Amino acid sequence: xxxxxxxxxxxxxxxxxxxxxxxxxxxxxxxxxxxxxxxxxxxxxxxxxxxxxxxxxxxxxxxxxxxxxxxxxxxxxxxxxxxxxxxxxxxxxxxxxxxxxxxxxxxxxxxxxxxxxxxxxxxxxxxxxxxxx
Amino acid sequence: xxxxxxxxxxxxxxxxxxxxxxxxxxxxxxxxxxxxxxxxxxxxxxxxxxxxxxxxxxxxxxxxxxxxxxxxxxxxxxxxxxxxxxxxxxxxxxxxxxxxxxxxxxxxxxxxxxxxxxxxxxxxxxxxxxxxxxxxxxxxxxxxxxxxxxxxxxxxxxxxxxxxxxxxxxxxxxxxxxxxxxxxxxxxxxxxxxxxxxxxxxxxxxxxxxxxxxxxxxxxxxxxxxxxxxxxxxxxxxxxxxxxxxxxxxxxxxxxxxxxxxxxxxxxxxxxxxxxxxxxxxxxxxxxxxxxxxxxxxxxxxxxxxxxxxxxxxxxxxxxxxxxxxxxxxxx
Lengths: 133, 332
Prior knowledge:
Strand order of the largest sheet of chain A: 1-2
Strand content of chain B: 5-15%
Radius of gyration of chain B: 21 Å
Helix content of chain A: 55-70%
Number of strands of chain B: 8
Number of helices of chain B: 11
Oligomer: heterodimer
Shape of chain B: globular
CATH class of the largest domain in chain A: Mainly Alpha
Radius of gyration of chain A: 22 Å
Order of helices and strands of chain A: HEEHHHHHHH
Order of helices and strands of chain B: HHEEHEHEEEEHEHHHHHH
């Protein structure tokens, strides 16, 4: 990559005031570094990935409001977690968590478990029980 | 207390921490040099491991590997500690700071407050250096940030004890022993050989063979899993290749910088030509990313586009195979 080709597409990174270091070749063929404002190709990939998460969050939200699933998968997705990560934070088996996805099981969970979920997602128990709050 | 520490931004966190720590201890080392000696260039495809709902493709070895190999090759001894108890982890860190030693930490990214929201995923192998403490605030040199930053002890505890895959468990490290003179020349030769070996490995998911496997998979994806998922997979491949940390072109440019520097250190001018070549290959990687992005931008369902992208990857595999075969001979 030539120094002049280091992408300077003002995009996602610029909002956060974060520039990224790139390695490129100057006109004498010597390697040097330059800060990049961002690159559209990459920003797009990131945005698409975030869109997908949002889609999943919305799908879980709908299912939860329809009473098909408990709020756990919704909050899990909202926090960009997967079962492995959540299981580790909760110190529980994955299959235990999967059971908690069922509204019937979730409604019977002890206060202690609910509190742990709430702490993990950084919300209150009331919010955990009702995702519209 | 504040230790005098020279913060230098780098492309990748692991190389950055290594080069900053070594430089602090009187052994100045550039990021590309650290990356090269740690044999950082790699390619691996792990279809059975899903990251962000897509098969994992990585352009680097497992986190920590670069550091480990570098220390072994240069004869540097590193003390590493992990903790179960956050209080003990904090105490150990404070003790080291009091001894005027900057400390490297492995942390999770998701709760790193100074990171932009878009970059906060549950990735637990980020590295940074703590170089001091003022009351309840730790002074942080995060190599991918332009400037030094700060974290409160609570914020630091959360990222040090992030959970999930490769949980850091308070992992901290610092060099305790350096040889009188770093055996750079020997290390560089060994490192280049190792990189050639990795990239030419006779394993279908590693190195150039791994690229070919991915190229084949890309051709099949649209039919097998649908266009939407294929585009998501391609997007993730591009992210792994270009996201913060690779310095562009899936580390190829950093490697080019390494070869250029190495040519002088071990007095082997031919490495400069290799540097030029890998730079050109890096440019092709960027073309590959641009073509892939065109596909996931338009959501066009023409399978022709996927074939073209796959072919580009196959050509890259051919070029790199030829490149590393010749590099191996040149360094032998």
